[in-house]
Design a protein that fits this description.
Nuclear Transport Factor 2, Chain: A, 3 helices, PepSY-like, alpha+beta, PepSY-like domain-containing protein, 9-stranded antiparallel beta sheet, signal
């Protein structure tokens, strides 16, 4: 059943990507631009897309040019924010869970995702023979684990 749900989710995401349409910033409604600029005043290298009913913006921030992706509803509400960052910024609870559940694995491709005021962490974990995509909550609990 879990595999079916994951397969349907992946299929749904791929169909969403097919319907994505690049748009110029002047085509983005002002209510969304104002909300974005207020939330991310130092954003650079900004690219907008329309994905279904949401406006998606990809951008970078900071000295290290951290990658971000944000989704806005048509009324300007930030509904999802994804931020890539280094392993060192993971909460201690998540790091402890990785050390306990995946000893000897290398941490790669770390993302913090905020949606509906809830934060989760997507982490790729690799060793010589295996690769896992794992989702943790802020307390370090494993929410999802998929072999890659």
């Amino acid at each position: 059943m879990k595999k079916l749900i994951v397969t349907i989710s992946i299929l749904g995401l791929s169909l969403t990507n097919v319907s994505a349409q690049d748009i110029h910033q002047n085509e983005v409604p002002s209510v969304i631009l104002n909300s974005f600029q207020k939330s991310f005043p130092k954003a650079a290298d900004i690219d907008w897309e329309m994905k279904g009913n949401y406006y998606e913006v990809e951008f970078e921030t900071g000295f290290l040019r951290d990658d971000h992706k944000a989704f806005y509803s048509k009324d300007g509400k930030l509904v999802r924010h994804e931020e890539e960052f280094s392993k060192s910024k993971l909460p201690k609870t998540v790091l402890a869970s990785i050390k306990k559940s995946f000893p000897g694995y290398r941490t790669d491709d770390v993302k913090r995702i905020t949606e509906d005021r809830k934060i989760i962490y997507h982490v790729e974990l690799k060793n010589i023979s295996e690769k896992w995509k794992v989702v943790f909550d802020a307390q370090g609990k494993i929410l999802q684990k998929i072999a890659d």
